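To: structure subgroup
Subject: Chain for Friday's discussion

All,

I'm putting the inputs and outputs inline so they're searchable in the archive.
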Amino acid sequence: MKFKVSFFAMACALCVASVNSLLAQNNDNLAKYIANAPFKMPVVTEPQFKTAVFNIKDYGAIGDGQALNTLAIEKAIKACSAAGGGIVVIPAGLWLTGPIELKSNVNFHADRGALVTFTTDHTQYPMIDGKTKILLSGNKLENVGVTGEGVFDGGGDTWRPLKKSKAAPQLWSDLQKSGELLSSDGNTLWPTKQAMEGEAYLKIIKGKSGLTDADYLPARDFLRPTMVSITNSKNVLFDGPTFKNSPQFALNPKNCTNMIIRNVTINNEYYAQNGDGIDLSSCKNAVVYHCTVNAGDDGICMKSSGNKGDPNTDPGLTNIIIADCIVYHAHGGFVIGSNTDGGMSNVYVTNCNFVNTDVGIRIKSSRGRGGLVHNIYIDNVFMHDILNEAISFNTYYEDTQKNATATAMPVTAQTPRFQDFYISHVYCNNAKTAIAITGLPEMPVNHIYLSDITISSRESFNATDAADISLKNTSLISPASTLIELNNAQNITVDNMKFSKGVTTFISATGPNTQKIKVSKTDLKNLAVPVKLDKQLDKGTVLIQ
């Protein structure tokens, strides 16, 4: 008996030592990221919680996957909050629940082995201000955490439509056989009739006065909820959990300050409509690290709508670090936009891997959704098998009238302004296009500094309506005969560029506004046509040194 007690005590001591060691490592990494930021990053501190434990089983929860535990979990959270805070524990088990709302000073901790499944009975999700209740939420909180190695399943397949263009043929066939409803154009499968008809219903009631949440109920299935969203809060921690199968966005903190997201796994299917991984909306002083994402839409994305201050002097999203993250599948690995109207500044992305994403580094917006986005730093990014662009700037996102609107428009507060990006030490093997920059005639993408970059791709580099672009110590490996294509581009400098033997034209330049192109420390002597200029451009447009 003494041996058993001694052994148990030793095991506990080892466990505590291991936890303390992990905490120390996390704190060391956090301090390192902040110290190495290329801007003055405020100190981000981890919220502290009382050690009192509130086990959901003590409040009537049953972990058999059949009993609905919404009320029991709510009781545990309220008891924890009333006691001044602590840890609400979800032990190993299969826990069925409806929506969960967190409170201040509560660490919501799902142990390893805990599988929390959000009910697919949509009647359990009330309408709040015309929106379907978020699965795991909290608003106006201070000191709140979602921790532990448990898994949360959002039951998203019962909410999401499926586009035929995104589905493998067998999946499309199987879902049709399972009873999914086919849209009239034959391009979308819907999980319910309410979901399929929800958009049309919302158009009918739009603009009517005196609408209540009951008026929105017929569109509940169409108004898919976010899976996890803490809003208008400070001192926020996500550490360890897996979020999978979300109805739309998986993890979407909004207007949070002093936030840590680490060791989080997002696992959404590649075909998950709007199935973003980690979206930070108008957050400040936040660090995201050691996270792994599979997403049906953007992987790790920055948004800034809803900012109440001046986006030029007080950006909605600022002081953000993304480090040591992996995105295995997504529309973009690291993404900015498309809604950037709240402004963004001081974002640092470092030491990340993007594999099989549609785009690697994706910067996007459009007229009416834009704002000033600047002081963005990206380095040490390693990518493989990128479907489209390794690096993309696009100011015509979802603009179906691109050709009709490719003339200068008045500059407004919502005009996209992408400038002062510093992108270095980026390496990519196998992309469709290495780098594509598309600005607006009235607001070129400008002051983009690209250095120490190696990309292999089928197509190389193109820029339209761009200014003050620098490429230094870059290697573009491509079978394309023309390496750099410029249209209405000014002040473009190329310094020490390496390229494949198949290149016959180094620069092809068009557009009446193209001027001041400078090439240095680059061997062009074996090219058939080093520079190809549009007839309206004079020979002095490109200077080769």
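Points worth raising on Friday:
The first strand starts at residue 53 and ends at 55.
The chain is about 15% helix and 45% strand.

D.
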